[in-house]
Prior knowledge:
The complex is a heterodimer of chains A (563) and B (353). Chain A has 563 residues and is mostly helical. Chain A has helices spanning 21-26, 42-50, 64-68, 98-103, 117-124, 183-196, 213-216, 219-238, 246-253, 266-282, 302-316, 328-383, 387-471, 477-554, 556-562, and strands spanning 133-144, 156-166, 176-182. Chain A has a three-stranded antiparallel beta sheet with strand order 1-2-3. In chain A, helix 5 (117-124) runs parallel beside helix 8 (219-238), helix 11 packs across helix 13 and helix 13 packs antiparallel against helix 14. The radius of gyration of chain A is 32 Å and the shape is elongated. Helices cover 80% and strands 3% of the residues of chain B. Chain B contains ten helices and two strands, in the order E-E-H-H-H-H-H-H-H-H-H-H. The chains are: A mainly alpha (563), B mainly alpha (353). At the A-B interface, helix 2, helix 12, helix 13, helix 14 and helix 15 of A face helix 7, helix 8 and helix 10 of B. Chain B: It comes from Cajanus cajan.
Amino acid sequence: MMGSHNHSVEDHPLSAPPHQMENLLLHDDHGVGGDETKSFSTNYRSAMSTLSESHHPLSPPIVAAPAESDPLRSPPHLHFPDSPNPNTSSSYIDPPSYAEAVFAPYDGETNGVDPPSPPLSLSRSPSSSAEYLNITVSNPVKEQETSNSIVPGSNSYVTYLITTRTNIPEFGANSDFGVRRRFRDVVTLSDRLAEAYRGFFIPPRPDKSVVESQVMQKQEFVEQRRVALEKYLRRLAAHPVIRKSDELRVFLQVEGRLPLPATTDVASRVLDGAAKLPRQLMGESVLAPHEVVQPARGGRDLLRLFKELRQSVANDWGGSRPSVVEEDKEFLEKKERIHELEQQINGASQQAESLVKAQQDMGETMGELGLAFIKLTKFENEEAVSNTQRIRAADMKGVATAAVKASRLFRELNAQTVKHLDTLHEYLGLMLAVHSAFSDRSSALLTVQTLLSELSSLQSRAEKLEAASSKIFGADKTRVRKLEELQETIRVTEDAKNVAIREYERIKENNRSELERLDKERQADFLNMLKGFVVNQVGYAEKIANVWTKVVEDTRGYVDEST
Amino acid sequence: IWQTNFPEYQGPEKIVIRRYSDFVWLRDRLFEKNKGIFIPPLPEKSAVEKFRFSAEFIEMRRQALDIFVNRIASHHELQQSEDLRLFLQAEEETMERLRSHETGIFKKKPSDLMQIFKDVQSKVSDAVLGKEKPVEETDPEYEKMKHYIFELENHLAEAQKHAYRLVKRHRELGQSLSDFGKAVKLLGASEGDALGKAFSELGIKSEILSAKLQKEAHQLLMNFEEPLKDYVRAVQSIKATIAERANAFRRQCELAETMKLKEINLDKLMLIRSDKVAEAEQEYKEAKSEQATKTFETIVKLMNEEMGRFQEQKTLDMGIAFHEFAKGQARLANGIADAWRSLLPKLEACSSS
């Protein structure tokens, strides 16, 4: 597990590595906690002890840092002295490094912060923790496309190394492997999954970027994309059904060219469509059963599209309602609910962003204030003519130190907050998946309805033909042939209809089970998010309170004097 | 123009009402008559119309004016000033009359006007005679002190700027917590059940904390940012005294020159036994008794004392300000910790259900 959490946090005094919930299930960090005897945090500690082990034991402030840190990488400065007396824990920071410490960027965000999905999957499904599928995306490399183009070296692209560790049997005996893939392959994977798993909430893939090749090669862009790819693949790995899919397996395991049919480009579709068009225009267009399993797309399925469009208009305008409607009401209710939920999540996510910004600003300004006071302190000391100046300088230094510490704590708090509240953003992304799963359903329904109405019109035509031909003795040969053809068409259409209905039912079932899963997982995830957020706030608030309490004590003399 | 009215007590329980411009009057008078003494600073006039009537601004101003008067009253020289007594006891009409005296571009007495002309004159003659800059003291200790004061103002101004921003940040954080709380509550309503309840509790706490932050922002403004600003003003007041001292020094130099000239003249006349000897002697005696030297020496002595007192006072003032600042931050942080902590058992209950 270590490999996937190896983000290089800059090793400066107070850079506590980010919240590592995942680690805790594998290594018990409790031992590093040390002795906590601070009495005022007993309430907190007793609350803490009732929290399940899936929680980060953010132990009381004085010795919190070691518990937070990766045991392999405890920043030495962060190890607070074990003595409970805050007054003896002088200089949390080395004095000379104030400036650097405040202005050194907090690296947690930029170096592949752990996406929430691994901890989510771990804490949510303890039963399948025996089965893991851990994916890492790394090592972007620029490669040349070996094309016969006239312009040399024109088509270069980036490939990423995708390493997987798993014990899932479907992957075979191999538990550790890696392949190189380019972004185009990811698009292919996502398209194939969308086709094969209609009705499921498939995590959306990272966007294609409409940028020029120069930008594509920039370090920043490549890194952003690497992070996004990793998140995407991990989300796929977290989905109980998709993680076992052939498509994903092939993507992760098979070296060399990705053996999935690539998305057909527009040109060939147009050609295809053009070939089919004459047939469609002249004869009856027959919807082959295997075709109904996919929604109508442009190009090839032009006529089918038109038919389904006509059908949907008929539906909307209150035409004859086909029988496939029954429990739609319940579904529509759920859909409404999901829609509203999405809006609320969106609102909360926006406010979460502004909260994070406000915390960030607070930390920054506090730091600047601290620095200004440090300069003042230095100044007073240099220019001191009287003793009172030195005393004032000392007081000021106390405040300055506290402010700088508080500033750093705010920044850490914020980095953690970001990770927790990120859950909201995750779910917004998931909502997209829900939308497309719902539209899978509606398009399948539309197909069914179209087929049904087509069937009924075919059947009425057949009836008419039969009626007509039965009146005339010595059956008209052409009419008989027509009837036979018609009946053949009816049979095929009937088959297609059945397939379409089966497909629709399948998608409905997928929707249903996914909704169930969504509800359950969402409950768990959101609760975790809340807990994480609150625990984080408590921990840091206590630390900050400590920092200032010391200054209160140190300056207590002034208040008594002046009264 | 000025709107603030201000009641206060004095001695045997006398209450008078004063406007901001009355304070300005008092300060100007004290400054004129007590060169060398650091007169306590006044809060700024506010240029922005809208802001002038806000409750916060009035409160800040009131606090600053209160401190102003009390400082004067506790300064052993200034407290004896007649102007102070007038200020504290006169009826409103009297104050109005006194105030209107001061209007006018120069706001100075005739003798001062003369002095200004003289200054200009000497500057011109210096330029004509090819002298360089106006004469300045060369006392190294004094130079150090001047440098200190000027630098100090810069440092303090920066600290004060950040302190003010910090107040703003508190308000912003409070606002965003409030918005966050509302959004979370809405989300809770959508969710329902245990989770929904958890969200709504979180939302409620957020709103409570938002109020705490706003309150703390106000405290921070009054008890930390204001004292810093006051410190800056005090330093600016010292700069004004430094300017006065420079003036006095120049006049003293001029006087010394004048005296020299008169002495030479006198000797010359005595030599030729002129009738004008008596006249010249008289002039010489007059020059000798002129105040300029005394004024300057007084200023120097006073400034030294004042500087010492100033430093002591500021250590005390800042000590209190730091204490209040730290207390406020600790109080806030503890409040935040308590509020969130109280949620934990509820959240725990949610997940186990």
